[in-house]
Predict the 3D structure of the following.
Amino acid sequence: MKKTILNNWSRAVLLNFLYTDLYERQGKAISNFEYALPEPQSDIAQEITKDPYNFDFVAIREDYSEKELKDALMDNITKFLMELGKGFAFVGREYTIPIEGTEEKIDLLFYHLYLHCYVVVEVKIVAFTSRDIGQIGTYVNIVNDLVKTDFDAKTIGLIICKSKNNILAKYAVNSSKEPIGISEYKLSNLLPVEYRASMPTIEEIENELR
């Protein structure tokens, strides 16, 4: 009731969140926000997370790749933003940052309007490993140094993976000084593998229309 009033949800949006058990998932990511962020930002950052994230709005083949999942999320960007929660604004995919003659591409970059900070999101189709902390920590540092302004709060990293060992995840986030959260996602709207051969790609459709 409080969330409905606060966010001015319509009946349809409320029913969607009831159906996807938002109450049970809100603020449940494993994170180090309590230690890596000042109050009250740490509490707000924890509250904007979910565990697991519900990607059932995506229809994808069973044996999907990481690129296919990210493509599907981008094709459904409005629903993806709704699932991330109020305040998230999409900045870019494979957001390119030049670094000393080379460049780094951040998979998904968002900005949170209420926290006034960038949020680096990494989506993994495999189980979480401790190595993932180093990758997202690097991206968070890059954004802090080359994208963030003096008016922005400290950048947050969020790993959304297929599965995780909660104890390992807790050790991993506590090893980093950067604010990082780790959540799982669930995806049940899967198509048989053979559908891939019968369904045209976006490129094939565009070529046919030309």
In short: Residues 131-146 form the longest helix (16 residues). The first strand starts at residue 30 and ends at 31. Strands lie at 30-31, 53-54, 60-61, 88-99, 102-112, 117-127, 156-163, 180-186, 190-191.
